[in-house]
Amino acid sequence: MNPFKLLVLDVDGVLTNGRKVYNKEHIPLYKEFMCKDFTAIKRFMATGVNIVMISGDQWNKTMAEKRNIEFFCTRDKNLSLDKSQYVPLFMKKFNLKQKEIAFIGDDYFDLSMFEALEWTFCPADSPAIIKKASKYILHSKGGDGVLRELYDLAVGSNWIEDADINKVLELDSKELSSADMK
């Protein structure tokens, strides 16, 4: 039923609107995320879809770790921004075929993933080159419920069954970010 078993998420421009607030030393201070997207991520995970985040910004790693989401930074030792170089790693790690991996991204540095994968999604405010490469263009803009919309699309298209609320609550209880809110 489910055409993809792994959903790879770009962060900035998908989970955020792409804006960053910097201090004088050009260190990012904060970004805005939508809680409904994090709930959608847990709902995907509760249905058996694995989630990973991939970004060129190491700043996102702590956020991913606090939410128990595996994180990959493309600006590793060789400073490559080619996210598609991680596809073989994902295939091996999750024992998947390439056609079982989906990606959602929004900008030029995501283009290699759109070229490498069949199941691709982008926010409504993506540039034309990404919209042209994407299988599905969502109605939501980056940071404005993109993952929530994608989850609803997946359920509405019968790609997945709606998540059991108890599984979602269990995943939420294991997040460090939830513990931090107490």
What does this structure look like?
This protein is α/β, with parallel strands linked by helices and 182 residues long. It has helices at residues 35-46, 60-66, 87-94, 111-116, 128-133, 146-156, 165-173, 176-180, and strands spanning 6-10, 21-22, 28-30, 50-55, 70-73, 101-104, 119-122, 136-137. The chain is built from eight helices and eight strands; from the N terminus they run βββαβαβαβαβαβααα. The strands form two sheets. The chain has a six-stranded parallel sheet.
Order of helices and strands: EEEHEHEHEHEHEHHH
* Rg of Cα set: 16 Å
> What is the rounded distance between the termini?
38 Å
The count of β-strands is 8
Mean pLDDT, rounded to whole units?
A: 91
Strand content bin: 15-25%
Shape: globular
Oligomer: single chain
The main sheet orders its strands as 5-4-1-6-7-8
Largest sheet: 6 strands, parallel
The assigned structural class equals alpha/beta
Number of continuous helical runs = 8
| Proportion in helices | 25-40%
Report the uncertain regions: none
Write a concise keyword list for the protein shown above.
alpha/beta; single chain; 182 residues; two-stranded antiparallel sheet
At a glance:
By secondary structure, the protein is an alpha/beta fold. 35% of the residues lie in helices and 16% in strands. Helix 1 packs parallel to helix 6 and helix 1 (35-46) crosses helix 7 (165-173).
Write the layout of secondary structure elements.
Layout: E1 6-10, E2 21-22, E3 28-30, H1 35-46, E4 50-55, H2 60-66, E5 70-73, H3 87-94, E6 101-104, H4 111-116, E7 119-122, H5 128-133, E8 136-137, H6 146-156, H7 165-173, H8 176-180
Parallel strand pairs: 1-4, 1-6, 4-5, 6-7, 7-8
Antiparallel strand pairs: 2-3
